């Protein structure tokens, strides 16, 4: 049940702000209301749906400004993970990232949910490979925001091959072990992609140059 609702969110069948009721979901999915209630509670804990006074239970929303904020924060945190991976003299952490990439490549290309989950797992497992305690514990909070942003992005772009192309470029950059190259590719993959998406929506302007530069300076510190 939880998987079915998550799939609907990821595929854009349930959109940000859509109202969810136990009765409607139980009837449409042919399950009991207690089963629906349990699934909704889990998705609330995951951050994919929210309960709001006077508005009921709805798919969580992420604003264009939040999409850009999340992207900038992610690059900074991704580079914390990369620094730990590059500093590992044994090479085991980089080997772990290679395994993560192998898992991504094995995901069925014709299954949007499998592709989405592989995308999420790729970024999660880079943080895990770093061994950084804070990153590992921050991931569950981060994942919900990424999932919501990705769901909107994938619906708007309708380019199923794009994720593989971008992650292939990212993996090639990581293999160079050159921090500047890796950071530049993460910025292109995450920040530039987020700005393109927001522009595609026509919902908000890109960040001012000074703010954007400050964010990137922080990412490289």
UniProtKB/TrEMBL annotation:
The keyword Transcription applies. SMART domains: HTH_GNTR. The keyword Manganese does not apply. It comes from the Bacteria. InterPro entries: GntR_C (IPR011711), TF_FadR/GntR_C (IPR008920), Tscrpt_reg_HTH_GntR (IPR000524), WH-like_DNA-bd_sf (IPR036388), WH_DNA-bd_sf (IPR036390). Residues 1-62 form the HTH gntR-type domain. Pfam families: FCD, GntR. One of its GO terms (molecular function) is DNA-binding transcription factor activity. Keywords: DNA-binding, Transcription, Transcription regulation. PROSITE patterns: HTH_GNTR. PANTHER family: TRANSCRIPTIONAL REGULATOR, GNTR FAMILY, UXU OPERON TRANSCRIPTIONAL REGULATOR. This is DNA-binding GntR family transcriptional regulator.
